[in-house]
Amino acid sequence: MEKIILKAEIRTATGKRVAKDLRVKGIVPANVYKGGKEATNLQVAVDDFLGVLHTKAGENVIITLKLSGEGNPKDKTVVIKEIQRDPIKSQILHVDFNEISLTEELKVNVPVIAKGEPVGVKVDGGILEHVMRELQVECLPTAIPEKLEVDVSALKIGDAIYVKNVVPPEGVKILNDGELIVLIVKPPKVEVPKEEVAAEGAAEPELIRKKKEEEAGSDEEAKPKEEAKPAAKPAAGGKEEKK
Prior knowledge:
Layout: E1 3-10, H1 16-24, E2 27-33, E3 40-45, H2 46-53, E4 62-68, E5 76-85, E6 92-99, E7 106-115, H3 119-122, E8 127-130, E9 134-139, E10 148-151, E11 160-162, E12 173-174, E13 181-186, H4 194-222
Protein backbone atom coordinates (compact mmCIF):
# COMPACT_ATOMS: atom_id res chain seq x y z
CA MET A 1 0.00 0.00 0.00
CA GLU A 2 1.30 3.40 -1.01
CA LYS A 3 2.18 5.87 1.77
CA ILE A 4 1.87 9.62 1.29
CA ILE A 5 3.07 12.57 3.35
CA LEU A 6 0.58 15.41 3.81
CA LYS A 7 1.35 18.67 5.57
CA ALA A 8 -1.29 19.75 8.08
CA GLU A 9 -1.59 22.47 10.70
CA ILE A 10 -3.30 22.38 14.09
CA ARG A 11 -6.50 24.45 13.93
CA THR A 12 -7.42 26.37 17.08
CA ALA A 13 -10.39 28.37 15.81
CA THR A 14 -13.63 26.52 15.00
CA GLY A 15 -17.12 27.31 13.76
CA LYS A 16 -18.95 27.73 10.46
CA ARG A 17 -17.62 31.24 9.84
CA VAL A 18 -14.02 30.10 10.36
CA ALA A 19 -14.50 27.10 8.07
CA LYS A 20 -16.00 29.29 5.34
CA ASP A 21 -13.07 31.74 5.52
CA LEU A 22 -10.57 28.86 5.28
CA ARG A 23 -12.23 27.48 2.14
CA VAL A 24 -12.06 30.89 0.47
CA LYS A 25 -8.27 30.76 1.05
CA GLY A 26 -7.97 27.29 -0.48
CA ILE A 27 -7.73 25.50 2.86
CA VAL A 28 -9.86 22.57 4.01
CA PRO A 29 -10.84 22.11 7.68
CA ALA A 30 -10.26 18.58 8.96
CA ASN A 31 -10.46 16.36 12.04
CA VAL A 32 -8.46 13.35 13.21
CA TYR A 33 -10.27 10.70 15.29
CA LYS A 34 -8.80 7.92 17.38
CA GLY A 35 -11.07 5.56 19.34
CA GLY A 36 -13.32 7.46 21.70
CA LYS A 37 -10.87 10.31 22.25
CA GLU A 38 -11.61 13.92 21.45
CA ALA A 39 -10.91 14.82 17.81
CA THR A 40 -7.89 16.86 16.81
CA ASN A 41 -8.78 19.90 14.68
CA LEU A 42 -6.58 20.43 11.62
CA GLN A 43 -6.43 22.33 8.36
CA VAL A 44 -4.79 21.26 5.08
CA ALA A 45 -4.24 22.95 1.73
CA VAL A 46 -6.92 21.73 -0.71
CA ASP A 47 -4.38 21.32 -3.55
CA ASP A 48 -2.17 19.12 -1.36
CA PHE A 49 -5.13 16.97 -0.37
CA LEU A 50 -6.28 16.55 -3.97
CA GLY A 51 -2.80 15.31 -4.79
CA VAL A 52 -3.26 12.60 -2.13
CA LEU A 53 -6.48 11.41 -3.80
CA HIS A 54 -4.80 11.03 -7.19
CA THR A 55 -2.65 8.07 -6.13
CA LYS A 56 -3.44 4.49 -7.22
CA ALA A 57 -4.82 3.72 -3.77
CA GLY A 58 -7.45 6.46 -4.03
CA GLU A 59 -9.23 7.08 -0.74
CA ASN A 60 -7.60 3.99 0.85
CA VAL A 61 -4.15 5.59 0.83
CA ILE A 62 -2.13 5.58 4.08
CA ILE A 63 -1.20 9.13 5.00
CA THR A 64 1.49 10.44 7.30
CA LEU A 65 0.32 13.83 8.58
CA LYS A 66 3.27 16.15 9.12
CA LEU A 67 1.82 18.40 11.80
CA SER A 68 2.79 21.93 12.69
CA GLY A 69 1.34 24.47 15.11
CA GLU A 70 0.97 24.96 18.84
CA GLY A 71 2.47 22.42 21.22
CA ASN A 72 4.94 20.82 18.78
CA PRO A 73 2.46 18.09 17.72
CA LYS A 74 3.70 14.64 16.69
CA ASP A 75 3.10 13.22 13.22
CA LYS A 76 0.09 10.94 12.82
CA THR A 77 -0.51 7.94 10.56
CA VAL A 78 -4.06 8.12 9.25
CA VAL A 79 -6.52 6.89 6.63
CA ILE A 80 -9.39 8.88 5.17
CA LYS A 81 -12.65 8.29 7.04
CA GLU A 82 -14.99 10.63 5.17
CA ILE A 83 -14.87 13.46 2.63
CA GLN A 84 -17.72 15.97 2.69
CA ARG A 85 -18.39 17.70 -0.63
CA ASP A 86 -20.72 20.39 -1.86
CA PRO A 87 -23.57 18.48 -3.61
CA ILE A 88 -23.65 20.95 -6.52
CA LYS A 89 -20.07 22.20 -7.02
CA SER A 90 -18.33 19.03 -5.68
CA GLN A 91 -16.05 21.34 -3.69
CA ILE A 92 -14.36 19.62 -0.71
CA LEU A 93 -15.90 21.09 2.44
CA HIS A 94 -14.39 18.96 5.21
CA VAL A 95 -12.25 15.88 5.73
CA ASP A 96 -12.27 13.34 8.56
CA PHE A 97 -9.26 11.10 9.22
CA ASN A 98 -8.90 8.00 11.40
CA GLU A 99 -5.59 7.62 13.21
CA ILE A 100 -4.29 4.06 12.84
CA SER A 101 -1.51 1.78 13.94
CA LEU A 102 0.43 -0.07 11.25
CA THR A 103 0.36 -3.17 13.47
CA GLU A 104 -3.43 -3.26 14.01
CA GLU A 105 -6.00 -4.53 11.48
CA LEU A 106 -8.70 -2.20 10.21
CA LYS A 107 -11.83 -2.39 8.04
CA VAL A 108 -12.03 -0.60 4.70
CA ASN A 109 -14.03 -0.79 1.47
CA VAL A 110 -12.18 -1.92 -1.65
CA PRO A 111 -13.49 -1.54 -5.25
CA VAL A 112 -14.35 -4.67 -7.28
CA ILE A 113 -13.11 -4.69 -10.89
CA ALA A 114 -14.42 -7.08 -13.57
CA LYS A 115 -11.67 -8.58 -15.74
CA GLY A 116 -12.45 -9.83 -19.24
CA GLU A 117 -15.66 -9.93 -21.29
CA PRO A 118 -18.27 -12.58 -20.41
CA VAL A 119 -19.24 -15.16 -23.05
CA GLY A 120 -22.87 -14.33 -22.33
CA VAL A 121 -22.22 -10.73 -23.34
CA LYS A 122 -19.90 -11.26 -26.29
CA VAL A 123 -21.79 -14.17 -27.92
CA ASP A 124 -25.38 -13.96 -26.64
CA GLY A 125 -25.76 -10.21 -26.20
CA GLY A 126 -26.35 -10.34 -22.46
CA ILE A 127 -25.66 -7.54 -19.99
CA LEU A 128 -23.04 -7.64 -17.22
CA GLU A 129 -24.50 -6.02 -14.10
CA HIS A 130 -22.31 -4.84 -11.19
CA VAL A 131 -24.50 -5.51 -8.16
CA MET A 132 -21.74 -4.69 -5.65
CA ARG A 133 -18.99 -2.30 -6.68
CA GLU A 134 -17.17 -2.47 -3.34
CA LEU A 135 -16.46 -5.12 -0.72
CA GLN A 136 -15.50 -4.56 2.90
CA VAL A 137 -12.23 -6.15 3.94
CA GLU A 138 -10.23 -6.45 7.14
CA CYS A 139 -6.43 -6.45 7.15
CA LEU A 140 -3.32 -4.58 8.27
CA PRO A 141 -3.04 -1.06 6.83
CA THR A 142 0.02 -2.07 4.83
CA ALA A 143 -1.93 -4.96 3.19
CA ILE A 144 -4.96 -2.98 1.93
CA PRO A 145 -5.44 -3.96 -1.74
CA GLU A 146 -6.01 -1.22 -4.28
CA LYS A 147 -8.75 -3.34 -5.91
CA LEU A 148 -10.22 -6.84 -6.05
CA GLU A 149 -10.13 -8.22 -9.60
CA VAL A 150 -12.66 -10.85 -10.69
CA ASP A 151 -12.36 -12.82 -13.96
CA VAL A 152 -15.80 -12.81 -15.62
CA SER A 153 -14.81 -14.10 -19.09
CA ALA A 154 -16.39 -17.56 -18.58
CA LEU A 155 -19.78 -16.27 -17.39
CA LYS A 156 -22.81 -17.23 -19.49
CA ILE A 157 -26.28 -15.70 -19.30
CA GLY A 158 -27.65 -16.35 -15.81
CA ASP A 159 -24.22 -17.01 -14.30
CA ALA A 160 -23.11 -14.94 -11.31
CA ILE A 161 -20.08 -14.21 -9.17
CA TYR A 162 -20.83 -14.38 -5.44
CA VAL A 163 -18.84 -12.84 -2.61
CA LYS A 164 -17.59 -16.33 -1.73
CA ASN A 165 -16.09 -16.63 -5.24
CA VAL A 166 -13.89 -13.55 -4.82
CA VAL A 167 -10.36 -14.55 -3.79
CA PRO A 168 -8.64 -11.81 -1.73
CA PRO A 169 -4.86 -11.39 -1.43
CA GLU A 170 -3.03 -13.13 1.40
CA GLY A 171 -3.67 -11.50 4.76
CA VAL A 172 -6.96 -9.93 3.60
CA LYS A 173 -10.37 -11.12 4.83
CA ILE A 174 -13.64 -10.24 3.07
CA LEU A 175 -16.38 -9.41 5.59
CA ASN A 176 -19.49 -9.35 3.35
CA ASP A 177 -22.00 -12.23 3.33
CA GLY A 178 -20.63 -14.93 1.01
CA GLU A 179 -24.03 -15.57 -0.62
CA LEU A 180 -24.45 -12.02 -1.93
CA ILE A 181 -24.15 -11.53 -5.70
CA VAL A 182 -21.31 -9.29 -6.84
CA LEU A 183 -21.67 -9.59 -10.65
CA ILE A 184 -24.26 -11.28 -12.85
CA VAL A 185 -24.88 -11.68 -16.59
CA LYS A 186 -28.51 -10.90 -17.41
CA PRO A 187 -30.40 -11.72 -20.63
CA PRO A 188 -30.53 -9.05 -23.33
CA LYS A 189 -33.45 -6.66 -23.24
CA VAL A 190 -36.23 -7.61 -25.67
CA GLU A 191 -37.49 -4.63 -27.65
CA VAL A 192 -41.17 -4.67 -28.60
CA PRO A 193 -41.68 -3.77 -32.32
CA LYS A 194 -43.24 -0.34 -32.84
CA GLU A 195 -46.10 -1.90 -34.83
CA GLU A 196 -47.15 -4.00 -31.82
CA VAL A 197 -46.96 -1.02 -29.47
CA ALA A 198 -49.12 1.03 -31.85
CA ALA A 199 -51.66 -1.83 -32.16
CA GLU A 200 -51.90 -2.15 -28.37
CA GLY A 201 -52.41 1.59 -28.05
CA ALA A 202 -55.22 1.56 -30.63
CA ALA A 203 -56.98 -1.40 -29.03
CA GLU A 204 -57.07 0.16 -25.59
CA PRO A 205 -59.68 2.92 -26.31
CA GLU A 206 -61.91 0.32 -28.03
CA LEU A 207 -61.85 -1.89 -24.92
CA ILE A 208 -62.61 1.09 -22.71
CA ARG A 209 -65.58 2.12 -24.92
CA LYS A 210 -66.95 -1.43 -24.93
CA LYS A 211 -66.69 -1.65 -21.16
CA LYS A 212 -68.55 1.64 -20.71
CA GLU A 213 -71.35 0.45 -23.01
CA GLU A 214 -71.70 -2.78 -21.02
CA GLU A 215 -71.82 -0.86 -17.75
CA ALA A 216 -74.43 1.53 -19.16
CA GLY A 217 -76.59 -1.44 -20.26
CA SER A 218 -76.37 -2.98 -16.81
CA ASP A 219 -77.50 0.28 -15.21
CA GLU A 220 -80.55 0.50 -17.47
CA GLU A 221 -81.61 -3.05 -16.61
CA ALA A 222 -81.18 -2.37 -12.92
CA LYS A 223 -83.60 0.63 -12.94
CA PRO A 224 -87.23 -0.26 -11.91
CA LYS A 225 -89.92 0.50 -14.47
CA GLU A 226 -92.04 3.56 -13.69
CA GLU A 227 -95.60 2.73 -12.64
CA ALA A 228 -98.53 4.65 -14.19
CA LYS A 229 -99.66 7.44 -11.90
CA PRO A 230 -103.38 7.57 -11.04
CA ALA A 231 -105.37 10.62 -12.23
CA ALA A 232 -105.61 13.39 -9.69
CA LYS A 233 -108.93 13.54 -7.78
CA PRO A 234 -110.81 16.84 -7.47
CA ALA A 235 -110.55 18.59 -4.14
CA ALA A 236 -113.28 17.90 -1.63
CA GLY A 237 -116.32 20.14 -2.09
CA GLY A 238 -115.17 21.37 -5.42
CA LYS A 239 -117.17 21.41 -8.61
CA GLU A 240 -116.32 19.60 -11.73
CA GLU A 241 -115.30 21.78 -14.63
CA LYS A 242 -117.94 22.00 -17.28
CA LYS A 243 -117.08 20.77 -20.73
